[in-house]
Structure formats: structure tokens, C-alpha cells
User: Fold this.
Amino acid sequence: MTTAYRTVIGLETHVQLRTRSKMFCGCAADYANARPNTHVCPVCLGMPGVLPVINREAVDHTIRTGLALNCEIPEYAKFDRKNYAYPDLMKWYQISQYDLPLCVNGHFDVEVNGATTRVGITRVHLEEDTARLTHVTAADGAPASLIDVNRSGAPLMEIVSEPDIQTPAEAMAYGEKLRALLRWIGVSTANMEDGALRIDANISVWPEGEPVGDVKVEVKNMNSFRSLGRALAFEIERQTARRERGQPIEQETRGWDESAGVTRSQRTKEYAHDYRYFPEPDLPPLHVTRQRVDALRAALPRLPDQVAADLINQGAPEADVAELVQDRPLTDYTLAVIEAGASAGEAVTWIVHEFRRALNAQTNKSAAIPIPPAEVASLLALRAKGSVSSTMAGEVLDEMFATGKSASTIVEARGPQISGQDELLAIARQVIQENPQAVQDYRDGKGRAIQYLMGQVMRITRGKANPSAVSTLIRTQLDAME
Amino acid sequence: MADELYRLTLHAASQGLRDGSFTSVELTRSLLDRIESVDGRVGAYLTVTADMALEQAADADARRASGRDGPLLGLPIALKDVLSTAGVETTCASRILEGFVPPYDATAVTRLKAAGAVTLGKTNMDEFAMGSSNEHSAYKPVRNPWDLDKVPGGSSGGSAAAVAADECLAALGSDTGGSVRQPAALCGCVGLKPTYGRISRFGLIAFASSLDQIGVLTKDVTDAALLLGALAGHDPRDSTSAEEPIPDYAGELNRDIGGLRIGVAPEYFGKGLDARVGDSVHDAINTLQSVGATQRQISLPHTEYALPTYYVIAPSEASANLARYNGVKYGLSDPQATDVDEMMARIRGRGFGSEVKRRIMIGTFALSSGYYDAYYVRAQKVRTLIKSDFETAFRDVDVIAAPVVPAPAFDLGAKLDDPVAMYQSDIMTLPASLAGLPCLSIPCGFVDGLPVGLQLIAPPFAESRLLQAARAYERTRGPLPSPTKAIDTQ
Ligand SMILES: [Zn+2]
Assistant:
């Protein structure tokens, strides 16, 4: 007989904040393409006698994140020293937040296959990043470690979830949605591949019906959502197998080995750090005034969930909306198109599919979208009126991107849609005559034959024929031939 | 007179420069010669920056010639080696920082330089400011200029001895639990520790961050006021520095103190106090009463807990502050080590002295999981009680008078094997440090031919009142009938 098990997962997400300067000094925080050890100063190098000064922008970003995650923002927060000895840590202590973080008690709703799970957010706090170590072999063949201090002191936010997640799919959905949210509110690039977003997981498996204990396994080193899912699936299997064999789950830290597809033990409980936290005496407690929180709340954009709900209410398909709100600039653009008169359903679907295709084909991807939203609205209006076919709308759009001309100018230049019966009738007859196989297919009941013949008409008319008129004509002609 | 320029106070030398009686270069040379002739016996300096000092002096003379002036223009001052100095080795009297040359000046040093001061060099101290006798310097002990077999006090013993031996006109020190006041008392100079936050700590190499405060050691109260005026003020690089307004300390100095209420707490006059020290402190209070001050008894009931409280909080903070000295980036290095853990262990083992190691271990223990609440948290609570003792007392009095040290300077080596006995020499200076209050030490007599001090303590940011009271005492007292300093007899 097999026992049923349940899985308890909590996530700790480290997020590098997008600020002008580092957390406690004036060095530029954007060191991505800089040579090693060029974004450094006595403060982030941990030289003797220097003092930290709190970066207000980083505190604001953290509060913004807390508000977006439905957190409470306590009036007092403080920084603490977390003591541990490692060469990537310049002072041998990290300035972090222990018992009075900036944000507490939030929640974040995550959807998997149409079901929503509410994940509690324990806390969001602020700390400083460490330097980067690279292990190399020196010229004499000896192992050596290189230290790049550029990252040292970069502002790092940690989002700690409650253990409310039960499956790898939920964990991945949490990560993906969190990434979109962080980008949406502009606090981070949240790129996992640059290390701007790092997710560690605490996971434990318990026999169904038994109380959940304290023991948990911390899994690290996942550098994509896919590896997060794989690592958690591996752990569920490993821990379940131990339970089956009557072995306990040991409190430990395990690292995910991507190529081997396994987690490996890195540190067991007896070697767990005693971080000896105590209040950072170099920084007075942080008084977060209500005015500051209110101002940040007021300046927060409408969040993806709210925007999505609105669009769905206005008739946009859920799947398209879910895709759209991954991308804040495109969503804002779509809202502007709707504002300019397009219907929500048409705008969302057309932008997610057709418009994004054309946009992605642009070579200069970093630039703002060059077409005024009103132009897209007017193109959609032409399409809705039947003045432009779907095919032609796509071509018109490409031409708008290429030339910067307005939709109406392009459509006018191409000539009006052909809907004159005589002209279309002649073309339809010609197409039927030239495609006996398609005619035969039609007779054999293959519906796709109509589509093929219509495509031929469109080719000849360069997309300018009114599709519904053509469809009717072809059917009438074919039926008449029988 | 010209050959004894080094004996001048800051304000007298400033007057001489202004009058054109001598130049800053002459004054600086006089001090460099004095250092040359006596420091071999005193050991007050770790580094003398003679060339830099003469350059600064020539520059000050040029500025004065072009019509500029300033309260410190051209005046030679010594800096405790705990203060970072750009381009000048800064060791904290520790092996672990041997050869360390900071690329930055401490804000206090920047301000002195901006005021035109001449910096003579870096003074000796107890390693990382941990000690009360200056015997914990990794390089050499400092000797008391009054009796070369006695300690000068610590940890700013080099600064105090340099002032007392006329090897500088004044010096900067740092006071964490009494490190300015105690050596000032034992060396017979004025030592002022301002309110925590009054002077920026940027560039002051940290011992215990919540207690460390830069202070001044001078030949008289007027000089202390002059120096404080140049140093005080908010610094955006130190988030714990205060934005309080800065009074004209020197300008307000000679105000009448009629009606000043002096609090006297029996807790400072109990067991362990040499009765002769107590008598000279009482004499000093009587002197102040003779010029209009009144005396009343107050109670500071938690005074006896200051010592254990301090010896939890200060080592706890120190254990983190000193963690960065691991040989990776500056200071000692160890090319023989085969891996990083071994390298760090060897460097810290070799680089730190025994007193520093003792405090790192005490602090690490006090912060450890399972002990944190019993030690660190409880110590913070007691610190609050000590603070509120003072707040209550200051409802009834304007300043508090007390001894600085329980006894005059002891023999070199006398307490070296007994750390607790050594810690007890700070027992009267610790409470005001824990409360972050401004306080000063001023000579009030001699016991066994050695100076002892009167300590005055004031409410936060009442340095002006503190200096006025000290100045009134100094003026009324007149020159103390003093024995000759040992350093001046050979
Ligand atoms: Zn920096």
C-alpha cells in the first residue's frame, strides 16, 4: 500500500534593484558591462573607517514591491549586521534586515491551469549584494580565486514567501509572475540569466495527514524557471523515496546540478551558520513615514492583475490578455489603442498576434514603438469596416513600420478594396478555371478548397478583395457549375 | 621665547601668528625639534610627517600673507592613528594594518586641514583603541611625561602624552569608553568628548560604532572650544552625525556661570576611589561654587552596571567591525598560506594583539545564538536605564561633576596581566559614553606628583555649557601648583 504525500514549498527570491547608485555608497550600480573592479570605492570595498549611507531609491523600490505584493509597510524598519566570513564579503558582515524588514504580511495570487493559489508573502527586505568570485587556474597551475568587487554593495531585495506552494508548476508560475510584476513596476530587470533574479527554494515532503514539521531542505543554484521546476521535482522524488524507506528528511542545503539533473548536499545542519545578527550601529533606524508610503502607493502603476481583469471584462480573450500583461510597454500601448477607439477584444488579440509579429521583426528593438496608437486604432477600424482585409491589414502594418506613413495614406495608395461584383466575378471565374483540382476537391467535400481558391483571388487582387464577397461569389459559382 | 614656541597653547600661538611674532614654519619646526628631542623617551608618535607638516605650514604662512586668517590657520596638531589620513600610513597601532595607507581623509582631518591646521603626524594608541594604558600598542608603549615609569592612560595615550610633553599644540583622539578623558586626566591636559554624533565618524577606524566619538586633547579649555568649533557638524557620509546647530563655542566660552546647578552623585565617590582624588574633585566643585554655581546631590543608580554593560556592547560591535581585517585587500598579507581559510587564520592570528583577540572573542560569544538575549539584548536594556538615570538627573542639574579616574597613573606593567583591573580604570568614564553625553576632563590637582582630573558631564549637545563651566573653573583655579614633568628635567 502506498502512502500519499504532500509537498510544502516556500521560495526566497533575491532581486537586484535597478537604482542609480549602490546600496550604501555612491558607485554606479549599473556595472553590467564594466571591467572588473572599476565600480568600487572605499565603502563597497570595506576599507577601515568608512560608513554606509542608505540609498533612498532602493528603499523606495522595496516599498513599491511590498505594496504591489499587498504587504504592510511598518513605520519603523532597521538594518542589521549578518556576520559570516567569506572572501566575497568585503566587511565579513553583510548589512541586511533581520527582525524589522521594510515590508511584511503580503500575498500574491498565482494561476496554474485556471486554478488560483494565494501565496503568502512573509516579508520583503533590503540588503547589499556580495562581490563575485571566479575560480581559475593560475599560470603556475595552482588554483586561484579572482574577486570582482563591482557587485559588492549593489542593492539586493529579498522576497520571502510563506510555504504555501505545493507543486513545481506553482513554484514556476510564482517565479514567472513575480518576474513580470517586478519589471512592470520598474524596480528590476529581473533577468535570471544576469543574476538579477535568483530563486532559492525550501522544500519538504510529508505523509498526508501528518502535521508538517520544521525540517526543510534548502535548494539553491537554479538559474532558470525550468531548472527551478526540475530541481523541485527531483527533490519531491528524492524525499518521497526516503519517506518510503522510513528515512527521515535531514535539514540541509542542497545545490542543483543542471547537467546531472540532481541536487547535491552542500551543508548540513551541524554546519549551519550562526549569523550573529545585531542592529547595524552605523545606521539609525529607518522611519518610514505614512506620507512616503502614500506617495509611493499613489505613484504605483495599475498592476497586471487589475489591468487584465479590466480587459477580460471588456471582452478580450483570457489567454491573449495573460500573454499581453507579461509586457508592460505593450500593455500600455494596447490600452492607448483602446483609448483611441478600438475595441478591447480586437485590439488585444490583434496586438498579441499580428502587431507583436511585426514589432519583433523590427531591427531596433530597444526603441519605443514608433507608430502612434491612434494609427493602429484607425487601421483596426478600417479592418472592422471591411475596407481592409486581415491579410492586407498585416501588410499595411508592415508598411507603417517601414515608412512611418499613416494607415489611411497607405490604404488609399493601394487603392480601395475591390468589392465591385463584375470585377470580382471575372477574377473568380478565372481562378476556378485555372484550378480544376481544387474544384474537384470541393465536390469531394473538402472544405479547404474554398480557402485555397480564395487565397488565389487574394493573390491576384493583392489582398484588396473583400473576403466575404469573394467567399460568397466562389460558392455561388461552384454550386452553379454542378 | 622663540625657542620654546612648542609650549604655546593653540590660542596663544594663533595670536603670535596673527601678530607676526613668528611664522607657522617656525612654530612647526619648533615642534618637530621638540618631537625629535623627547619622543624617543615618550613614544607618543607612530609616524611623524615632518615634510608634509612643513609644507602645510608654508602654505598657511602664504595664506596669512595674502590676508587670510582662521582660528586654526598654521597651528600644528597631532592625530591619533585611528583617524584615516590620505597618503599617510594609518595602523591603529596594530600589526594587521601595518603599511596600510588610506586613499581618504577622515572628515575630522578634512575639516582640520580646511581650517588651515598643520598635521604633525600620527599618535600612538592602544591597538584599535582597546585599552586604558597604551601598553597594548603593537609597536611600543607610551610613557607618561610626568613620570616615565607610569602609563599615560589609554587608548588615546599617545595624543595625551604628546600634548603633555609639548610635542604638539593639541591633538585629536577618540573616546569609546573614556579613551580621551582618562589619558587627559592621567597626563594633566584637557580632554573633551563631545556628544555622540557631534563630530563625524567617517574615516575614524571603528572600534564600537555606537560609542566611538572623536574628541580633542588640549592644553586648556579655550583650545578645546576652538578645536570643537572646527570639527563639529553634520556629515552626509556619517548617518549617525547630528544635524544640530553649532554654537560659537569659543565666543560663548567666558560667559558667567552664576546659577549653574552642579549635580554630584555618590555613586562616583564610592569604593575604589582614592580619597585624595575625591578631595581634589570636591575642591574643584567648591571652586565653581565660589563663582556662583550651586551644588546638589543627585542619584545615578545604575552606574555600577556600566562596566559589564560596556564590556558586552563594545566587544560585540568590535567583533563585527574588526572582521574585515582578513588580509585579502590591505594590511598584512601571507603569501605562504596555501588556501584562503589558512591565509585568513594566519593573518588574524599574527596581526591582532592579545587584548584585541580577547575582545573579539567576548563579542563573538555575546552575539552567538543562545547567548544573544542574555548578553547583548540585556546590555542594551541596561544601557537604556543608564541613559534614563542621566535624563532624570538633568531635570534638576545643568552639569554633573565627578572624578575621571579612581587613582593617578599606575606603573607600566602593573595591570597588564589583569584585564579586569585594567577595565576598572574606566569605571567613571563609561556611563557618559553609554549615554552618548558630552563630557570633559580638566586637571584639578596632583596626587603623588601625578595629575588627576575633574570630569564634567552635560546633557546632549550642551557642549557650550560644559566648556563654560570648565573655563570658569580653569579661570578661578588659576595655574595649578605643579611639580616638574619628568620629561623636562633631563
Ligand atoms: Zn562603492
The mean pLDDT of chain A is 91. Residues 421-481 of chain A form a domain with the Arc Repressor Mutant, subunit A fold (CATH 1.10.10.410).
